[in-house]
């Protein structure tokens, strides 16, 4: 009983913290891209060289992000075609080595984060896009350790909105983008 009460007090203290800045930890973060390819089914790529900052205020119901993704970190999963995904016909990682997402529009449903909208830049093209928030969770491993923020968001994007036209008819235009961020409190 006392242990349960202590856990409840700890959780309340964690949730009542004011807005916190978090630095993204690349070792626990990734962007996964999933696209349907004729004759192959779903093909997945991942990028894991991610940096930036997240501001999150669950009490004031606000949040913002500044995320930079090194596109050269893109790797195809289960297929030896990384060179194709990095090529000029797709992400053109040599000419556009960075993708970014900058947002200050975190929408809530009650006290639950619902969507985050911001400027997504891929291949030098910026479009305003809304991602569905799957999870925002704050946790602290041990007394006195830094608070860690886990964020998961996703949406489907059209390749043509970012001038990605490689293998038309073979590769579907819609790409599932899953963003998984792990970040440590810095204030």
Q: In words, what does this structure look like?
A:
- By secondary structure, the chain is mainly β.
- Helices cover 10% and strands 57% of the residues.
- It has helices at residues 2-15, 82-86, and strands at residues 20-24, 30-37, 41-47, 50-57, 62-70, 75-77, 98-109, 112-122, 125-140, 147-158, 171-185.
- It has an 8-stranded antiparallel beta barrel.
- A hairpin with a 2-residue loop joins strand 8 (112-122) and strand 9.
- The chain is globular, with a radius of gyration of 18 Å.
- The two termini are 33 Å apart.
- The model is unreliable at 1-16 (pLDDT under 50).
Largest beta sheet, briefly?
Answer: 8 strands, antiparallel, barrel
State the low-pLDDT regions, or none. Answer: 1-16
Q: Span between N and C termini?
A: 33 Å
Indicate the percent of residues in helices. Answer: 10-25%
Order of helices and strands: HEEEEEEHEEEEE
Portion of residues in beta strands equals over 45%
User: Which word captures the global form?
Assistant: globular
Q: Helical segment tally? A: 2
Spatial ordering of strands, largest sheet: 1-4-5-7-8-9-10-11
**Average pLDDT, all residues:** 88
Main structural class = mainly beta
Radius of gyration, taken over Cα atoms and rounded to an integer in Å: 18 Å
Count of individual beta strands = 11
